[in-house]
Amino acid sequence: MSSLVGRKREASEVKRLLSAARLVTLIGPGGVGKTRLAIRVATGSRQGFQDGAWLVELAALEDPALLVQTVANALGIRDHSARSPMAALTDHLVDKQMLLVLDNCEHLLDACARLAGELLTASAGLRILATSRHVLAVPGEHVLPVLPLAVPSPDQPLSSADAEQYDAVRLFVERATAVLPDFKVTDDNYPVLAGICHLLDGIPLAIELAAGRLPVLAEKEILDRLGDRFHLLTGGRRVAETRHQTLQATIDWSFDLCAPEEQALWTRLSVFSGGCDLDAAEAVCAGRGIARENVLDLMAELVDKSLLIKEEHDGRTYYRMLHSIRDYGRTRLPVQDGTVMRRRHRDYYHRMAALADADWLGPRQSSWCERLRAEHANLRAALDFCLAEPGEKHVGLVMVTLLGSYWVTCGFLSEGHRWVELFLALADEPTPLRAKALWIAGWIRQVRGDHFAARVALDECHALAEQLGYRSAQAYAVHYSAHTAMSEGDHARALVLYEDALARHRALNDEVGVITLLYKLAFCYCLRGDTVHGDIDHAIALCAECLRRSEACGEIWCRSYALYVYGLGLWKQGDHHGAAEMGRSCIRLKEALTDTPGVGLALELLAWIAAAEGHHERAACQLGAAQRIWQTIGGSLNGIEQLRAHHDETETAVREALGATAFHAALRKGMEFTFAQAVGYALGEDAEAEPSAPHLARRTAQALLSRRELQVAQLVARGMSNKDIAEELVISRRTVEAHVQRILTKLDCTSRARIAAWIAEQRT
């Protein structure tokens, strides 16, 4: 949010190195500005890379085993195959021309070195820019030390006219002006500023922290305190590098300037990974000397002191610490308090997982998906606690089971597989919890295409459920066994199992089971397509029931798949217009969920429809867009043979209609689409579709609002209060109020009634 001062020479040197080397590592002590420099270079260089520049932030990652998955997540890779995350990542990068920024590698040094070596070997067009406190020691690595900013020498004459010559002083002045708008450099205070920057060795983080104290201390007081502190530290820390001593001393000094309650909150907030919101901070950190009602004011103080960074993500306010600040807080957190805070942290995210699971089949499904994605680092930290702390593995198994829908539907299939398998191996008691975890494991294994392993888990689940009399687990074991049979092409067995599971779910009044099974049963009938027994009509009827039930409760995941299967059935019956409408409706919902494989299926269907209607170039483009998705996720039409046959038939017909050259040109065009472009093309938001003027007007109007603002506006139009909207979207009331105010400003409205009128206009 603030500018990067200086570093022009370093930025030019990094660009020069990247033009000749494939791995460049920026090294230097914490707080010296490696991350800012890397982002500056990447932002200025991304146009030179066909596939852009991508940032992977590693500060919040603590488990080296999750490094590859973290990189894949940052690149938007949602792999749904049984291959390893590394295989998925290398396959994705093999033909890319891309700059990958790996930020904060020092605590994952060996893992980052191995990763960089393997990725650079796999992809000739890849370049990596890493930041670390240590070299990676990878063959071919070029290292550029990032030095502190230039500071004035205390031995030379000091004049305020020289302030612009020294980047350290310029940084201090810029940050001082941010907290004291009237701050000026004068001949009187310049020697003091120079002395501060000199004592801080020009380290940007240290200078920013010092400048942040100006509201409570004069420049001379800052200098005096720094001098005393460094004198005391020099005698006891000679084993550390001088600059590390300086940074440590600066943070020590910042810590000492905090009130006792602020110090306590700082150390307690360090248990969070990737930041937290106010609710989480209050739940975890309050008590033991900090009143809950004081947490907000204390956090505001830490923000004012540059110790917390306030950010907004999808309408929620988050607070995070720089890596060095967080690590320092952890070292100052007493051992006993640390265990208490980490357990509270785990308990908070355990409750969040339980709330998400209970609320998943409802209107807040998309909001929960976004919320859990934002909290992903904290969910990992909570699970890591369950692994490390004796006696907590049972709670870990509960959490990974509660997060089953999140792993599968929100794009974390490989990571979910790892967590579920890990805790299943550790918590092997024959309990109802293990039975549930086994059906989650079977589900994940089946989606990844590992059908044999899925059957093993589901058979054990069924046997254990029978032993325990756990009827719900029996139903889900049969349910997912049916899905495995369908994926393997055994429709007769799959239909018997599906009908059995559906009867079990209905008998248990399990609405989740019924809704999630209806579209799968419809899909199986659609794939079999027995005209004698009216399979397609039966499939459409099941989809209609699924749509009714899912719309009644506000669920969108199953609804989107029911729309896809409905469209597939209509296509098979020759109703191309109806099928296309269903396919596009499916994509709209899939886009909200970022369900990459779901969009791929719908794109395939729309390509088949376009080919049947004679729009061959459009069909080829959509086949190309779908092909890119299959390459990204490591799947191919979910392994369903009938869908593969429809794909091959369409591809052959389109190639014959266009000729080989035109076909491959259109296919290549589709393969070059980004996810957003593929969605827009499918929905007719492209030049070839030539949308009508009213449609263009709606697009222009809706472009005024972000997706979240449009969501809030639609709820305002339904007459909901800010409190109701906050509960609906699982966000704070203050956040809703901020959204409503921005909506009023953007639409030039003066009342909520005008927002409702605007929404009505968009629907006409």
Distance between the termini: 40 Å
Proportion of residues in extended strands: under 5%
The portion of residues assigned to helices is: 55-70%
Uncertain segments of ≥5 residues (pLDDT<50)?
230-244, 687-703
The number of helical elements comes to 38
**Oligomeric state of the chains present here:** single chain
Residue-averaged pLDDT: 86
Structure write-up:
The structure is a single chain. With 764 residues, the protein is mainly α. A 5-stranded parallel beta sheet has the order 2-3-4-1-5, with helices on both faces. Strands 6-7 form a two-stranded antiparallel ribbon. Strand 3, helix 5 (109-122) and strand 4 form a beta-alpha-beta unit. Helix 25 packs parallel to helix 27 (557-572). The protein starts with 7 loop residues before the first helix and ends with a helix. Mean pLDDT is 86; it is low at 230-244 and 687-703.
Summarize this structure as a short list of keywords or feature phrases.
single chain; 764 residues; mainly alpha; five-stranded parallel sheet; globular
Topology of this structure?
Elements: H1 8-20, E1 23-27, H2 34-45, E2 53-57, H3 67-74, H4 85-93, E3 98-103, H5 109-122, E4 126-132, E5 141-145, H6 167-179, H7 190-199, H8 204-211, H9 219-234, H10 242-257, H11 260-269, H12 278-285, H13 295-304, E6 309-313, E7 316-320, H14 323-332, H15 335-359, H16 365-374, H17 376-388, H18 393-402, H19 404-409, H20 413-426, H21 432-447, H22 451-468, H23 471-487, H24 491-507, H25 511-528, H26 535-553, H27 557-572, H28 576-593, H29 596-612, H30 616-633, H31 641-658, H32 660-671, H33 675-682, H34 693-702, H35 707-717, H36 722-729, H37 733-746, H38 752-762
Parallel strand pairs: 1-4, 1-5, 2-3, 3-4
Antiparallel strand pairs: 6-7
